[in-house]
């Protein structure tokens, strides 16, 4: 690990701090709330938004594939990005113990390609199968002059009984943080990853496992559907989908702190990126998932249940009284 470049993601074109400020500026203007039945049942800012629906809540999440689409374009392989699109949405629902049920996609492009659309459909269908949801509609827009290439996004509807929603309010000091491995970079931080490939390598370059970097970067996002089985058999105080912002996503769960003492082993692609760019540990862990795509926060009595559902899970740390996120004793900002 190195400790040099602390602003690599911003220099590549993505300023996490500015994005947070921009979101606050937008949300500050969203003051109107529906009157009558089916009102909003949550604050803006968690992983999903809620609507009252009798004894249940309906939940909505929205996300896209991001600049991973540019790698798909480079390799002329769009067959898995549909999985990413669905995964980035359903994983944001699972963290609150919500069951995803329906999905709509949005494709924006400067020029339609039948082959692209067919391959995107293959991935969307597989993502729907893995998460047991129906794709109930979507929208395709040809926006020549506004869009260059192709952007893929979607929104997902989830449902749950109100008393089964997990918001993170039960997270308490002493709880154990159990990490579940990612399948790779998933669909965040690709702007920085692409820059490293462009400047220091190529998508054809092979790492020690024999796979090309392009193939590794296109590995689809893991879908953590088994979470619904876990919450049915043990008490889970909180869960987190490690996406853009890396470990800082944990602060969305609670005002307590999170100390990661024994992080999961990052895949080789992360070491390659970090060494090529001389990027600090802190910058890596607030940009990428670093091999840990999902987190369960449980009392000690719940660890066995997590391991039974996710055999590859591992205790990585504990919840602390002092706020913030620590990685081996050093604060991630």
Describe this structure in words.
With 333 residues, the protein is of the alpha+beta class. It has 2 domains: 33-164, 2-Layer Sandwich (60s Ribosomal Protein L30, Chain: A), CATH 3.30.1330.10; 176-332, Alpha-Beta Complex (Phosphoribosyl-aminoimidazole Synthetase, Chain A, domain 2). The chain contains 11 helices and 12 strands. The chain has helices at 8-12, 16-27, 68-75, 81-94, 114-131, 190-200, 213-217, 227-233, 268-277, 281-285, 303-309, and strands at residues 49-53, 56-64, 99-109, 134-142, 150-161, 176-181, 238-241, 257-260, 292-298, 314-320, 324-327, 330-332. The strands form 2 sheets. Strands 7-9-6-10-8-11-12 form a 7-stranded mixed β-sheet. Strands 1-2-5-3-4 form a 5-stranded mixed β-sheet. Helix 4 packs parallel to helix 5 (114-131). The longest helix is centred in the middle third of the chain and has 18 residues, at 114-131. It is globular and about 45 Å long. It starts with 7 loop residues before the first helix and ends with a strand. The model has no long low-confidence stretch (mean pLDDT 93). Residues 48-159 form the PurM-like N-terminal domain. One of its GO terms (molecular function) is phosphoribosylformylglycinamidine cyclo-ligase activity. Residues 173-325 form the PurM-like C-terminal domain.
Estimated radius of gyration:
20 Å
Lateral strand order in the biggest sheet: 7-9-6-10-8-11-12
In CATH terms, the superfamily of the largest domain is PurM-like C-terminal domain
CATH class of the largest domain: Alpha Beta
Number of strands: 12
Distance between the termini: 18 Å
Could you estimate the helical fraction of the residues in percent? 25-40%
Structural class by secondary-structure content: alpha+beta
- Uncertain residue segments: none
Mean pLDDT: 93
Strand content: 15-25%
Provide the CATH architecture of the largest domain.
Alpha-Beta Complex
Biggest sheet character: 7 strands, mixed
């Amino acid at each position: 690990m190195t400790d040099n470049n602390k602003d690599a993601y911003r220099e590549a074109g993505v300023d996490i701090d500015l994005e947070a400020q921009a979101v606050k500026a937008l949300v500050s203007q969203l003051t109107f709330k529906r009157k009558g039945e089916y009102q909003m049942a949550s604050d803006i800012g968690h992983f999903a938004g809620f609507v009252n629906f009798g004894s249940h809540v309906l939940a909505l999440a929205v996300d896209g594939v991001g600049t991973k689409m540019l790698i798909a374009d480079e390799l002329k392989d769009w067959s898995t990005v549909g999985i990413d699109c669905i995964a980035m949405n359903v994983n944001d629902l699972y963290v609150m113990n919500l069951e995803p049920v329906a999905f709509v996609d949005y494709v924006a492009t400067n020029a339609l390609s039948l082959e692209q659309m067919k391959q995107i459909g293959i991935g969307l269908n597989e993502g729907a199968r893995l998460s047991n949801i129906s794709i109930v509609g979507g929208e395709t827009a040809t926006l020549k002059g506004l869009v260059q290439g192709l952007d893929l996004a979607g929104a997902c509807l989830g449902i749950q009984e109100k008393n089964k929603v997990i918001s993170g309010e039960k997270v308490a000091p002493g709880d154990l943080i159990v990490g579940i491995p990612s399948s790779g970079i998933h669909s965040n931080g690709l702007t920085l990853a692409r820059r490293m490939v462009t400047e220091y390598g190529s998508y054809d370059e092979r790492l020690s496992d024999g796979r090309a970097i392009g193939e590794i970067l296109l590995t689809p996002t893991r879908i953590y559907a088994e979470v619904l089985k876990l919450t049915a058999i043990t008490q889970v105080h909180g869960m987190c989908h490690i996406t853009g912002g890396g470990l800082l996503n944990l602060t969305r769960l609670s005002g307590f702190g999170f100390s990661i003492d024994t992080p999961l082993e990052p895949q080789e692609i992360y070491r390659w990126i970090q060494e090529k760019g001389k990027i600090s540990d802190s910058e890596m862990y607030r940009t990428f998932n670093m091999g840990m795509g999902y987190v369960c926060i449980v009392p000690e009595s719940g660890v066995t249940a997590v391991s039974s559902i996710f055999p590859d899970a591992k205790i990585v740390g504990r919840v602390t009284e002092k706020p913030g996120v620590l990685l081996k004793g050093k604060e991630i900002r």
